Amino acid sequence: MRKTMLLAMSALVVFGSCSGNSSNSSSSATGSNSSGGAEHSEDEKANIVLAKVGDYEITAEAVSYHMEGSAGPDRVEAGMQSPDQLQMATTGLMDQFVWAKKAEQAGYKLTKSEQARVEALRSELLATRYVGDVVQYKADPTREEVEEFYKSNQTRFFLPA
Q: Where is the composition biased (Low complexity) (predicted)?
């Protein structure tokens, strides 16, 4: 299993470094370069499965989030490009899933306080996505709408003498 994880992590590092060079070639999921290869979106890159622990799939996005929590947001990009740091973060996340599974098997449950934290995070994530998809979309006026607003509210745009 560790060999499979290392191969997946190496593929991710190679895949990530190849994605930055889009002028000469593009990379495919197999890692081969060809001028007709398909570009992968950020979502596809984030959803690459690096390892499996039982039923859990550990994705590049999950490892990135784990790195952000432990090393800080300013070190994530460099960490995702370093095979050693990527392996350490993936292994740490795998250990976390294994220990959580053992805790569940032993009968551990989240306390009310922990459940409240989980619910608060769930609400934050959903609200952020909703605002980004719905509210932000509506808050992006067309040029015509801006001009119409300006014309109908010109008195608000005068500078004091």
A: 21-37
